[in-house]
Design brief:
Layout (H helix, E strand, L loop, with lengths): L4 E4 L1 H7 L7 H13 L4 E7 L11 H7 L7 E6 L2 H9 L4 E7 L2 H8 L3 H17 L3 E7 L12 H13 L5 E5 L6 H15 L4 E5 L6 H10 L4 E4 L19 H10 L8 H15 L7 H4 L13
Parallel strand pairs: 1-8, 2-3, 3-4, 4-5, 5-6, 6-7, 7-8
Helix pairs in contact: 2-11, 4-6, 6-7, 7-8, 8-9, 10-11
The protein binds zinc ion.
Length: 305
Amino acid sequence: MPDIEMLEVGARDGLQNESVLFTTSQKLELIGRALDAGVRRLEATSFVNPKLVPQMADADAVAAGLPRREGVIYIGLVLNKRGALRAIEAGMDEVGAVCAATDGFSSRNQGMSSDASLAMCCEVVRLARTQGRRAQITISTAFGCPFDGEVDPSRVVEMARSAAAAGPVEVAIADTIGVASPAEVAALVQRVAVAIKPLPVRVHFHNTRNTGLANVWAAVQAGARIVDASLGGIGGCPFAPRATGNVPTEDVAYMLQRSGYRTGLDLERLIASARWLAGAMGRDVPGMLSRAGAFPKTSPDAVAI
Ligand code: ZN
């Protein structure tokens, strides 16, 4: 096991918030490239209403085309029980259930209250487990809500405690709109880690206000062991139209590896994938390592890939 497990979310959170629509085969290529770079756990798609999220309308086709490799775990994200049933039917290894810390966000995103979204997540975890699948819970808007504003950390801690009792493999706290600061992250990760012990804490950051990498660092120092990231940092933020996306996988991997953490990822392959992604999207990606290159170079032709 690597010191820090990096969970690739580019094919779901990344593409979901991009205006460029990828074909199913492009998505599968992205996933294949992530696997080639050492990723072993990734969000492959989400099972949501295709009318609301057209980027994920091919969820079943993506699921059917996933390369089966030893030790790889594919996650299907869901916002309700119906989605969970679809994810299980489609053969996903793991169901990722999402709730929100605020009523403002959960009512608009999921058509239910925050409490109801948490109850749904717990039900989804139990359902997945009875079907022999892994399951996890993500608490979105854990650091701030575009509708309700500031979020009380104690609310998130109590939600995490309840979520952990349902039997997921982990509980994640997500800065859905990219407003968190490192001090807030450190404090909340520490409290959630205690509340859900012995389950691990996963973190999910958007680089909307350029605090993404600092937040990852703060989270890791505070005890988080699983970090979401997207190749190239694609994704944007639906509530901040000109914002960048998730923290970039290759930039996070560089920061962690140069700091002595093992991630199990191959930087040069990540860089090559980010450049491929930029080509496929027809624009630069936000991640910076694919522009600057790794240091030190691991092969003489590394920059020419
Ligand atoms: Zn996200």
